[in-house]
Design a protein that fits this description.
This is Vacuolar sorting protein 39/Transforming growth factor beta receptor-associated domain-containing protein. Strands 1-2 form a two-stranded antiparallel sheet. α26 packs antiparallel against α27. By secondary structure, the chain is mostly helical. It is built from 34 helices and two strands. Helix content is 64%, strand content 1%. 30% of the residues are buried.
Length: 689
């Protein structure tokens, strides 16, 4: 049988209305009596003896806790903080009660009206002061007043004693909270962990702070965050936030570090941390990438664009709108990055959008004109233009006899790309040329007027000729290419392909891989005009021939006639030739033309003979069928058909199906003759009748 822990007595005194017992004083009463007489050491010894005397049951455990709490608050009231700490731990006091005496800890943690359970006798022993600062001040006044001047609170000695006691109080609360860590209910753990985090942050103990935050998840984030930011412990706060999974808030804090809103030497490169976090979110959190991609690009355009361009996108309308929104934001924050992103959308992503095409063309032209503001670039490009045209003029002076055709030199584009030193201005011009040629949807007339207004239309002769072709002014474009720029290769390419100045082979030779892929793509966005009808090409070749003849260019004319003879008709060419030109200049063209006509005539004769032979064979086969069937005579019915007319009296009508079946059987056993339909020039008709 379990005996009560209360003292027992064998002497009872009965009165009329009462019963008295003579018993020994309880241990609690003895401890309280000792504390009242300030015999704290004796009270501690009594509590220790009680704890070591026997195994304690639950009631005795509560008794022991009560004694330690009473001793702790007695020492606490006397500002003997370090001595009180082990008794607070042994007494199992609710940590919220002790924390309530420290305003810097309790203010962010407690709400009005919050309560904690405790023994009634202990509540009477708690100091009446509201906080530890008032408790220290009251003890200083009680011990030193009025012996210090000018006052107890203002005297240097008492101020120094106050600092020492305040530091001891912090040491006490730290040791108590560390002892309570991981114990009690959730609210008690939250108070313990939060108060410890605040204490470590305010004391500048970063190592202990990070260790504490990494080992617990009970600290109140709303209470800890402002304290950590104020103390400059941003790295520790970010570690806590990432442990809680609040990566959005981590990005916000790193942003504050980048912009100078916060400072923490432990976070050496917050911008790289942001990039690393977003790269780990690739394919997982597109919303976060969308939110921070533009901001990061404004700080580090290279890494930011790589992040934006590596995000998977589709051709859906939602993704298109998102791309346009990103582009709009970049244009406001970082124009250079916006231009690269726009180029990526059109060239790599192949966004088939007239608005994007127009923006990219305008951006390329603006960059090109900006490069020409540099005097050294302008002089270099003028020198390239003069050098190219002078080479052509020199070749004309030292030209070979007209019967020996000279091989044309490279185009101006190839010459410029191979001789100009690699530089941002060179790449800007090549991009502008490629954009003007490959993209559609922009206002060619406006772009040309912009170039002319800048005064660089002569230096940018190739670009102006390309724009003239886009506007349909083919004769003006051909004159600019053939006569002003002295570029017969580009002029003939323009005439042969129906208006293309920059062919895909030239783009590939320039080493612009992504642009070359766009030119070579099938069905891509804004693809340049492909080869047009043979009639349109022949018209442009004839127009180029007229340009050469008007300018008196016999060598270029002869070479054009030889290379493009298939697109020209002698009937159209001969009237254009000036009377004073020697016949030898037209001999190669006429020879090829007559030879081609004769070949077409012979080819037509062969086709006619093959067709006649095939027709004869069919007639012979049909004759045998008709002979085997004989004549069929049908008499008309007395009744007329529905239209009031007699039915047909054609003896061959009944044989149609039989003849067809017979011919099919015969064709299966014999080798047929295939029809040949040769291509004949639009201007060369062959009589095959």
């Amino acid at each position: 049988m379990r005996h009560s822990s209360f003292p027992r007595s064998s002497i009872l005194v009965y009165g009329q209305d009462t019963v008295h017992s003579l018993v020994q004083s309880t241990v609690i009463a003895q401890v309280e009596a000792l504390l009242e007489n300030n015999h704290i050491k004796d009270a501690v010894d009594l509590a220790n003896n009680f704890a070591s005397a026997q195994a304690l049951d639950s009631d005795e455990v509560e008794t022991l806790e009560y004694m330690h709490q009473a001793i702790a608050f007695t020492l606490f009231s006397q500002t003997r903080f370090v001595d009180a700490a082990p008794h607070f731990l042994a007494g199992g006091l609710d940590p919220r009660i002790l924390v309530s005496y420290f305003p810097e800890l309790s203010r962010p943690l407690f709400t009005d009206g919050e309560e904690a359970d405790m023994y009634d006798g202990i509540a009477k022993r708690m100091p009446i002061e509201a906080n530890v600062d008032d408790l220290i001040a009251a003890n200083l006044v009680r011990n030193y007043s009025p012996h210090l001047s000018p006052s107890t609170r203002e005297a240097p000695a008492t101020q120094e004693v106050y600092k020492i006691l305040r530091e001891e109080a912090i040491v006490m609360i730290k040791s108590v909270l560390q002892g309570f860590k991981g114990q009690g209910k959730h609210k008690q753990q939250e108070v313990t962990d939060t108060a410890l985090a605040i204490l470590f942050a305010r004391s500048g103990d970063t190592t202990s702070l990070i260790s504490h935050l990494e080992s617990t998840n009970s600290a109140s984030l709303s209470a800890v965050e402002p304290v950590l930011l104020e103390a400059g412990e941003v790295g520790a706060l970010c570690a806590l936030l990432r442990a809680r999974g609040d990566e959005g808030r981590v990005m916000e804090i790193w942003k504050g570090l980048v912009e100078g809103q916060y400072s923490d030497s432990s976070v050496s490169d917050p911008l790289s941390n942001m990039f690393a976090l977003l790269e780990s979110k690739q394919g997982k959190d597109r919303a976060m990438l969308r939110k921070w991609g533009v901001w990061l690009t404004a700080r580090d355009s290279e890494r930011g664009l790589m992040l934006l361009m590596s995000t998977k996108r589709s051709a859906k309308e939602k993704d298109r709108e998102e791309d346009l929104a990103i582009l709009s934001e970049l244009q406001q924050l970082h124009s250079s990055a916006a231009r690269k992103f726009l180029e990526w959308l059109v060239i790599v992503r192949r966004r088939d959008d007239a608005e994007l095409h127009a923006q990219l063309v305008q951006a390329c032209v603006d960059e090109l004109l900006e490069c020409l503001q540099d005097e050294s670039t302008l002089k270099l490009w003028r020198a390239k233009f003069a050098s190219y045209t002078s080479q052509i003029s020199q070749k004309h002076v030292l030209s070979l006899p007209s019967t020996q055709l000279q091989r044309p030199q490279s185009s101006f584009l190839t010459y410029f790309a191979s001789t100009a030193p690699d530089s941002p201005s060179k790449r800007a011009r090549l991009k502008a040329l490629f954009a003007l040629q490959a993209l559609s949807g922009y206002n060619a007339e406006m772009i040309k007027s912009q170039i002319v207004a800048s005064g660089f239309d002569k230096v940018l002769g190739l670009e102006v000729a390309l724009l003239d072709g886009k506007m349909g002014m083919h004769r003006m474009a051909l004159r600019a290419l053939a006569l002003t720029l002295r570029d017969p290769v580009s002029a003939e390419t323009y005439a042969r392909t129906g208006g293309i100045v920059v062919p895909s082979k030239a783009v590939e030779a320039c080493g612009m891989g992504e642009w070359g892929a766009l030119f070579a793509a099938k069905g891509g966005p804004g693809i340049l005009e492909r080869e047009k009808s043979s009639e349109g090409k022949g018209e442009l070749v004839r127009m180029l021939l007229e340009v050469y003849m008007e300018d008196g260019e016999p060598q270029q004319t002869t070479r054009l006639l030889s290379s493009q003879a298939a697109s020209l008709d002698a009937v159209d060419v001969i009237p254009l030739v000036p009377p004073d030109w020697p016949l030898s200049s037209l001999s190669p063209f006429l020879t090829h033309s007559f030879r081609r006509t004769l070949h077409a005539k012979h080819e037509g004769q062969i086709i006619k003979a093959i067709c006649a032979a095939q027709n004869s064979k069919v007639v012979e086969s049909s004759y045998l069928v008709f002979r085997e069937q004989g004549a069929i005579i049908e008499e008309a019915d007395d009744e007329e058909d529905g239209d009031g007319e007699p039915e047909s009296f054609n003896e061959k009508d009944g044989l149609a199906e039989k003849i067809a079946l017979h011919l099919q059987d015969q064709q299966r056993s014999e080798v047929g003759v295939a029809d040949i339909h040769p291509r004949v020039s639009n201007r060369e008709e062959v009589d095959v009748r």
